[in-house]
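Protein modeling request. Please complete all fields; requests missing the sequence field cannot be processed.
Requester role: graduate student
Desired output: 3D structure, token encoding
Chains: 1
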Amino acid sequence: MQRSFNQITDETRGAEDVLRWAAETYKEDLVYACSFGAESMVLIDLLHRFSVPAEIVFLDTHLHFDETYELIERVQKRYPELRITMQQPELSLSEQEEAYGPELWKRDPDQCCYLRKIRPLERALHGVPAWISGLRRAQSESRKHTEFVQEDARFNSVKICPLIHWSWEDIWNYIDEHRLDYNPLHDRSYPSIGCVPCTVPSDGGDNRDGRWAGTGKTECGLHLPTKKED
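Delivered output (230 residues):
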């Protein structure tokens, strides 16, 4: 799926064009799958600035940092018009332990991500024609070919990625310039913030370092073409 958008000459590196097109094309039939990381704070502000009526969906695994939940509360106060949904997994942590054993994230992180992130997003996107993601090409090797708009066979939807041309420096310049709130864990060497058991501080080479450390895993599976079945 090819779309022509302004990639260079505006301050948002094409994000404004993409978001305005998405709002005009899909109106309220849009979901933004939001992690409330640094990119998320930029996208939330852009959605607000350009009046994009997307529902913001946070995949609440029940394993996130307290700082993440506290940030969500602050965002709701700053942008009261936003629709924020805390999407829940089908299994509680105790039910997952009973079915799959203790600390599944250590023994089979792919399965844990499937149960607590992928399946909940499948439910959130059921019947939704398009969803927004904060992917950037510079985040990692696996994301360097991401397009603004692409077909997403996994979720039978269109995936819209407005920030593909933004660097990590661009993200933080925008946060500073617009005085946006952000997760304080970023100030403690956490470039990417996920679940507590699977996230550690990192001063590594790419923005996905620190996630699932020591496992060789860098993606939860939301942005990969295949899924793990239970």
